[in-house]
Structure formats: C-alpha cells, structure tokens
C-alpha cells in the first residue's frame, strides 16, 4: 500500500512539474487546482456508483437463493406426498382389471359393429369390385377395395390390441377377407398396364392416366399412415406398405428398357446399316416420347413426381446400357461413333452439363482406342483399293477427265480426301484431342500411301518403255499423275487449316517432299518420252547431212511443240519447270552433238556455214521456248546463247584470235572443261597441237574460280574418245 502511495505521489509530482515548467504557467495554478479537484470528484463519484451497483447485485442474488431454497423444500414435500398416494393406489388399480378387460371388449365390439355392414357384404363387395376392374372403372373399384381393406385392417388391429399372439383369430380374419389381396393384385395389374402404355394413353385418354395417378397417391397416403401407426403400436396389416409409387417407376423403367431393346429390327448380316437404322429409330421415338412427357404427361402427375426428369433419366440409363451391349458385340469402325440426338425444346428443360455421360469414360477410351486401330487397318485397305482402281484407269484408251480449268486429273485425290474428311468430321464431333490424333494418323497413312504411289508410277513408266505403244494415253495419264500431286498438296493444306491450328509436323513435311518428288519424276518421264522420239533427229546434228541442209532441227521443234500442247494441261509450277528443263536438255543435246566430233570442218567455208547454221538453230530454239513459256527469261536466253558462243569460235577466220573467243566462252560458261575446248578446236580442224596447248595453258592461268552463281551447262556433258595428246591442265 505504501509503495502504491509513493508511486501515486511521484506521478502527481511529475504531472505538476509538467504543468509549471514556464513562469507564465504559475499564474494558472488556481485554475489547475480547480480542474484537478473536479476530476477527483468525478472519479470518486464513479467509484461510489460502481460499488453501490455491486452491493445491489449481491443483495438480489442472496434473496433469490433464499427463495429457491424454500421452493426446493416445497417440491420435496410434494414428492413425498405423491409417493405415499401411489403406494396406497396399487391395490385399487389391480381391482380395475375387470374394467380394463371390459373396455377392450367394448372397443372390439364397437369395431365389429362399425364394420358390420362391410363384414356381411364382403362377398358382394368383392364381386362388384371385380366387375368394376374388368370394366375399367378403376377409381370406383379402388374405393370399394379401400372399404374392404379398412374393415379388415381395423378388425385385425383390434384383435392385435387384445391379444397380439392370437394367430388363430388373425388368420380367421385374413381368411374371411382373403379375396381382398387378390383384388388388390388385379387392380395393380390394370394400373401397370396403363402405366406401360402411358405415353400412348396420355394422348388419347389422359383421364385414365390421371385416375391411375390418383389411386397411387391414395395408396401412398395409406402407406404413410399405417407406417406411422406401426411406429406407435408395432402393428401393420398384411401387404403393407404396397409402395405402388416405386412399382410404377419400376414399370416405367422396364417399359423404357424393353422399348430401347425392341428398336433394333435389323442385324449386321441382314443390313450393313443396321446400327445407323437402330440409332435413328431410337433417336426418333425417344425424342417423341420426351416431348410427350414434357408437354402432356407432366400435366397428369403431381409436380413432386418430376415425371419428365424421371423418364429422361430412364431413357438415358437404358440407352447407356444398350450401347454398352452393342459395344461388347465387336463393332466395326464405321459403327463405333454415331451422333444420337438433340432437340431445342428439350435443351431448355435439361442441363446436359450436370448429367452423367452416356458411357463411362473408360469404355469411351477403350472404344476410341479400338476405333483408331480399326480405322488404321481400314484406311490402309481403302487407300490400297483406291490406288488399284486408279492404276486400272491409267491403262484406259480414253483420256482422263479434266477439271474446271481443263487440267487432266483422276479421281484418286477426291476419293482419298473424302475418306479423310468423313473420319475427321466424326473425330471433331468427339473432342479436340481425338480429332488431332485422327488427323495425325491420316497424315501418317498418307505418307506411306504416297511412297507406294511413287513406286507404282515408276512401274507404270517401266511397263510403258517395254512397249511404247501401250498404254495408248500414257502421256495424258502421266500428266494427270503430276496434277494429282498438286491436288494432294492443296487438299492437305485445306485439311490442316480446317481441322488443326498446329504447325507442320514431320509427316506433313515428308508428304510434301514425296509429292514434289513424284511430280518431278513424272515431268522427267514425260521429257524422256519426248527425247526418245527426238533421238534419231538429235543424231543428225553436227553431221555432213546437217551441214548441207538437214531439217532435223525443224522436226525437233515441231515434235517438242506437239508434246507441249499436251503438257499445257500440267498445273503450275511444274509446267514452267518442265518447259525450262526441256529447253536445257535440248541445248545440252545439241552441245553434246558438237562434242561428239561427228564432223570436222575442212576449210573456212565449212566453218562459216556450220557457224551460221548453229546460230540459226539457236534462234529457232529460242523462239520456240519463248513461245512455250509465254515470257522472256534470261536463263533461257543464256542457254541458246551457248550455241551462238560456240558458233563464234567456229566462225573465226584468224586462228591467232582463237584465244580471245575461247576466253569469252569460258567467261560466260565457267563450268566448261579442258576436254570441251579441245573438242571444239578439233572440230574447227585448223588448230595445231602447239596452238591448242598454248590456248589451254593461257586460259588455265585466267580461269575464274567462282561458279556458284551460274547454273552449270557443260558440267554434265561428257566428251568421249578424246585422243588429242595435250596435258590435262584445265581443272
């Protein structure tokens, strides 16, 4: 306490010191004193009020405890009095047993009197009820049945109350009312017949269906009442609870299941489209039934029955079970995936997102895996068959059909991509990952198919070379094959754009490489065909016959132009590439004829005539290929200019200037070799051994080493039988 006082004094001193730190504050000492006095008085008043409140609460609590003690004493005395009175009344209760028995007997007799009319008229009521059931008067029949059951149940209940172990009397009552249970079963049979045909009945006689629902509702109420009494007394009449509402739903479920199973009228053996037919029939009647349930049946049932949703779930369950059975029967690829149903009016009523799937996910996964395997096997067979059919067309004696632009084509690309399109449409209906898997599989199979396609094209060419008269339309069908490659490529691009947003994969790249290879091979095969026809005329070049006025070049140009009238049916870009390649090969064959040393000019006049003839031929070739390509080309000019450049070497009259002409030739065509130059000099016929060696050595010193930007022309031209003894200096 002393320590508390010291702390209080110290706090007060510190506070006073804070108030009187400045001289001017000393004038306010009285003011500070009055303020502190008011604060002290306020605190003391609050303390007094709090203490007074606590004292009042304690006083009130003590008073209540005193009153409670008095009440407990009174209750204790009352309990003692009750216990005393109870002990005195035991003998009195035992003396009232006769009264109790009389009351029970009176109750039993009262029940008998109450049901006396029904008891005596049971046979008549049974007969009337049976007739009403046969006449279809179900509501009236049920009313009489309820009267019989009410009488029987009351009598049995009273007997149960008297002596629950007296089975003899119970059996006697049951025997007397024995026909009641039979009538109940007969009525139930009629009810279930109506329920089975409810989707038909509701359209023609909805009153009948309403009567059935009313009867079921009555029985449900009776079941609930008797079950509640059983909880209190332990007694329940025989045949209760009937649970007719549950039985009604069981009947509906059985009806739906039977209806789904009965929809299959065909088998795979009798109709290849059996599954499509089954699903279409099922789709139609299920939608019809659900629309009837929504628009008509829902008005005949209480709202708490939710009859539409009950039927919807029953059909969902039945379809799921039936489809699982079909899956177990080893479906074929085209039977695995089918779209079932959908109706805008029903979509408003049902949230399909909260429904269970029609098939469990593991079954769906197994089914899709089986579909992929079957599809892989089938598409291999389809592609093989399509190729065999296309190969038969290659040997026809009639030209292939043209597209809207007149380009030759066969039906192979359309058939192949129709297969792919159909399966991708099915895959897209399922989900995105499955669609991508099927697309990848299609591209993979396409890649393998094109490898076989390329091999068959080569075999087609080889068979033709054995007898060039057959097939009659070899050129036209080879053009169609080239165009097919372009169509295949466009179709693949279309499929990728429509069914995938991913970048190209290795299968797609391989397909494009193979297609380009097949198309280019086809172009080369056609050019081979052309040059086989030109072979005889090419051999006339650079011969004495050519020098004196052969028409070999005219024939070559006419033949090429005739072939290219057909080649105009080749799509871009291969038609342009083919024109350039034909131009290049003609020039190479011409130069190859020069290098073959078929002729050696004897004098300047022959060299002049030969040079002029070569220049004329070059102009003729240039005119032809400009006409075929419709556009000018520096590469095309350069090809024919090689012939003109060689002609300038032959035309030169002063041998001492040969070095300059040959130097110009090498500058324009850096791939020219030493043996080429020696062959040209040998064809001139006036170059000495020393001159040849001097030209070779001099040119070797100035030859350009850069040839990367210039397309080679002389590289693939071989000079045979070169016997001039000059060292091989030009590398």
TrEMBL record:
Among InterPro entries, the record links this protein to:
EXOC3/Sec6, EXOC3/Sec6_C
Q: Where is coiled-coil annotated?
A: none
Q: Which domain of life is it from?
A: Eukaryota
Could you tell me where this protein is found in the cell? Cell projection, Growth cone; Cytoplasm, Perinuclear region; Golgi apparatus; Midbody
Q: Which keywords belong to this entry?
A: Acetylation, Cell projection, Cytoplasm, Exocytosis, Golgi apparatus, Protein transport, Transport
Biological process terms from the Gene Ontology for this record are:
exocyst localization; exocytosis; protein transport
Q: Name one GO molecular function term.
A: SNARE binding
Pfam families (UniProt xref) = Sec6
GO cellular component terms attached to this protein's record: exocyst; Golgi apparatus; growth cone; membrane; midbody; perinuclear region of cytoplasm
Describe the protein's quaternary organization and the partners it interacts with. Answer: The exocyst complex is composed of EXOC1, EXOC2, EXOC3, EXOC4, EXOC5, EXOC6, EXOC7 and EXOC8. Interacts with EXOC3L1. Interacts with BIRC6/bruce. Interacts with MYRIP. Interacts with SLC6A9.
Classification via PANTHER family: EXOCYST COMPLEX COMPONENT 3 (PTHR21292:SF13), EXOCYST COMPLEX COMPONENT SEC6-RELATED (PTHR21292)
Q: Which family does it belong to?
A: Belongs to the SEC6 family.
**Function as written in the Swiss-Prot or TrEMBL entry:** Component of the exocyst complex involved in the docking of exocytic vesicles with fusion sites on the plasma membrane.
Could you tell me what this protein is called? Exocyst complex component 3
The organism encoding this protein is Polypterus senegalus
């Amino acid at each position: 306490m002393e320590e508390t006082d010291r702390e209080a004094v110290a706090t007060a001193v510190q506070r006073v010191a804070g108030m009187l730190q400045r001289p001017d504050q000393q004038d306010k000492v009285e003011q500070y004193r009055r303020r502190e006095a008011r604060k002290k008085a306020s605190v003391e008043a609050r303390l007094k009020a709090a203490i007074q409140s606590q004292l009042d609460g304690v006083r009130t609590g003590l008073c209540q405890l005193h009153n409670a003690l008095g009440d407990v004493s009174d209750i204790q005395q009352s309990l003692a009095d009750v216990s005393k009175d109870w002990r005195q009344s035991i003998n009195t209760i035992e003396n009232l047993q006769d009264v109790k028995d009389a009351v029970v007997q009176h109750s039993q007799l009262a029940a008998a009197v109450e049901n006396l009319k029904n008891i005596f008229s049971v046979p008549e009521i049974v007969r009337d009820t049976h007739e009403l059931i046969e006449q279809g008067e179900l509501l009236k029949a049920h009313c009489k049945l309820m009267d019989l059951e009410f009488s029987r149940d009351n009598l049995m209940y009273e007997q149960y109350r008297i002596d629950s172990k007296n089975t003899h009397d119970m059996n006697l009552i049951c025997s007397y009312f024995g026909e009641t249970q039979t009538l109940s079963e007969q009525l139930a049979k009629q009810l279930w017949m109506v329920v089975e045909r409810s989707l038909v009945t509701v359209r023609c006689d909805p009153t009948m269906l309403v009567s059935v629902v009313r009867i079921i509702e009555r029985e449900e109420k009776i079941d609930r009442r008797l079950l509640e009494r059983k909880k209190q007394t332990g007694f329940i009449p025989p045949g209760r609870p009937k649970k007719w509402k549950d039985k009604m739903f069981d009947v509906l479920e059985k009806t739906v299941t039977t209806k789904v199973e009965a929809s299959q009228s065909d088998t795979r053996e009798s109709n290849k489209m059996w599954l499509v037919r089954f699903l279409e029939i099922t789709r139609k009647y299920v939608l019809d039934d659900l629309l009837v349930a929504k628009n008509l049946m829902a008005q005949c049932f209480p709202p708490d029955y939710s009859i539409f949703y009950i039927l919807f779930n029953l059909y969902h369950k039945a379809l799921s079970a039936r489809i699982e059975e079909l899956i177990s029967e080893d479906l074929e690829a085209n039977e695995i995936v089918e779209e079932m149903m959908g109706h805008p009016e029903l979509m408003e009523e049902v949230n399909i997102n909260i429904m269970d799937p029609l098939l469990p996910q593991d079954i769906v996964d197994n089914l899709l895996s089986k579909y992929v395997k079957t599809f892989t096997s089938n598409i291999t067979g389809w592609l093989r068959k399509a190729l065999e059919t296309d190969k038969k067309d290659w040997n026809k004696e009639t030209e292939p059909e043209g597209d809207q632009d007149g380009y030759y084509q066969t039906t192979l690309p359309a058939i192949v991509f129709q297969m792919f399109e159909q399966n991708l449409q099915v895959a897209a209906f399922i989900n995105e990952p499955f669609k991508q898997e099927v697309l990848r599989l299609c591209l993979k199979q396409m890649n393998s198919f094109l490898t076989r396609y390329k091999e068959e094209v080569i075999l087609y060419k080889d068979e033709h070379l054995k007898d060039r008269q057959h097939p009659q339309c070899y050129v036209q069908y080879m053009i169609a094959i080239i165009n097919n490659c372009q169509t295949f490529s466009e179709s693949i691009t279309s499929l990728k754009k429509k069914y995938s947003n991913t970048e190209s994969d290795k299968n797609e790249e391989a397909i494009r490489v193979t297609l380009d290879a097949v198309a280019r091979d086809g172009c080369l095969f056609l050019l081979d065909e052309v040059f086989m026809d030109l072979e005889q005329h090419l051999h006339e070049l650079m011969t004495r016959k050519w020098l004196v006025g052969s028409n070999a070049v005219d024939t070559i140009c006419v033949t090429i132009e005739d072939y290219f009238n057909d080649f105009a049916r080749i799509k871009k870009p291969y038609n342009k590439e083919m024109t350039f390649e034909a131009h290049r090969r003609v020039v190479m064959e011409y130069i190859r004829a020069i290098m073959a040393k078929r002729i050696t000019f004897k004098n300047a006049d022959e060299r002049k005539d030969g040079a002029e003839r070569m220049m004329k031929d070059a102009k003729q070739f240039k005119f032809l290929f400009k006409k075929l390509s419709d556009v000018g080309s520096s590469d095309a000019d350069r090809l024919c200019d090689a012939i003109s450049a060689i002609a300038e070497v032959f035309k030169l009259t002063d041998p001492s200037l040969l070095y300059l002409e040959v130097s110009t030739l090498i500058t324009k065509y850096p791939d020219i070799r030493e043996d080429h130059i020696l062959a040209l000099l040998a064809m001139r016929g006036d170059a000495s051994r020393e001159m040849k060696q001097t030209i070779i050595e001099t040119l070797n010193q100035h030859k350009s080493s850069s040839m990367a930007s210039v397309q080679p022309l002389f590289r693939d031209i071989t000079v045979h039988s070169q016997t001039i003894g000059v060292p091989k200096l030009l590398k």
